[in-house]
Every structure is written in C-alpha cells, then in structure tokens.
Design a protein that fits this description.
single chain; 174 residues; alpha+beta; 4-stranded antiparallel β-sheet; 6 helices
C-alpha cells in the first residue's frame, strides 16, 4: 500500500484534545480517502485523498471540529515534499532535530527576523520554504520556543515532527 499524502494534525492527544487514531482513519475513509493508515497517536495520517488534496485537508479539519469540538490544522504534504524537507534539514544528524511543517510560506523578512531571535535554549532555526527546521540542543522538552511564538513570529502556524518520525512517515508512505 502506498499513500499519496501525509497529513499532519497539530496538537492532538495532548492538552485534552483527544483524537483516537482508529476514529481518524474512519473519518478519512468516510471523506473518500483510500490507502488509509496512521502512525503513532500524534496525528500522523497517511492516505490517498479523493480529487483535491487541499479540499480533503479542509474537510478533515471540519469533520474533526464538528465531532470533537476543537479545531486543529491538517497540514498535508506529498511524501516527496516530506522527503525533500528531510533532505533539506540544515543541522546535520541532530539528535533533537525537528521539522515544523507550516500552513504556508512565511514572508522572507519575518522568517529572517524570527530565526535571528534567541529563545534561550541555543536553538538553531532556519525556514526553508513552508518548513521551519529546528535543532533543540537541550531537547524539545526544555525549550521556550512554543507553537504560539512560532505562529506569531512567522505569521503562520504549523506542527512539528522529530527527524525519526519524519523519516518513518516517508518510509510508510512508500
């Protein structure tokens, strides 16, 4: 089974936003997706959406919101786009490396200003296209770089995955 799309949901199964992965698969199938699977319980959906992938992502957001009562962005990429983001990771084989998949491409001046900030944990930051690449030298759990600061600084929101999870999603999609 191969999937044409990797859909990453922001902030599910944390902070009270419960979303059982079995139910996510059912919702995606109900919206017409095929080759549906999930990976770990953090909102990683692999599927082949019907017709327009962007419309599928928006319909998935709305279906989750209607059923569970909270809104979470669905950020879709092709497996090739995720593989390119991983190949573009600029900080080597960082043990605490993450890719923050964004809902859009930030303005270049906003990206430059954001990446120049010091968040106190020695984070290394670089925006490449619609992805924020992060190395958390002290680990992601110790950072003061929050999703709210990312959204405010870049003007777009997103969701992060560590490099191992990113690589696994690419493998599973193929």
């Amino acid at each position: 089974m191969t999937a044409d799309r990797i859909v990453l949901l922001r902030a599910v199964n944390v902070g009270g936003a419960k979303l059982p992965m079995a139910r996510l698969r059912e919702i995606a199938t109900g919206l017409g997706a095929t080759d549906v699977s999930t990976y770990i319980a953090s909102g990683n959906l692999l599927c082949t959406p019907p017709d327009d992938p962007e419309a599928f992502d928006r319909a998935l957001e709305q279906a989750i919101s209607a059923e569970f009562g909270y809104f979470r962005e669905a950020i879709g990429r092709t497996p090739e786009q995720v593989a390119q983001a991983l190949a573009d990771y600029p900080f080597g084989d960082a043990p605490h490396g993450h890719i923050y998949f964004l809902t859009g491409t930030p303005a270049p001046d906003a990206a430059a200003a954001f990446c120049a900030q010091d968040f106190g944990g020695g984070e290394l930051l670089r925006v490449i296209g619609a992805n924020l690449h992060i190395d958390y030298p002290g680990g992601a759990g110790a950072t003061k770089l929050t999703p709210a600061k990312i959204a405010k600084g870049l003007g777009v929101t997103g969701t992060g995955r560590n490099l191992r999870t990113t690589a696994k999603l690419i493998e599973l999609a193929h």
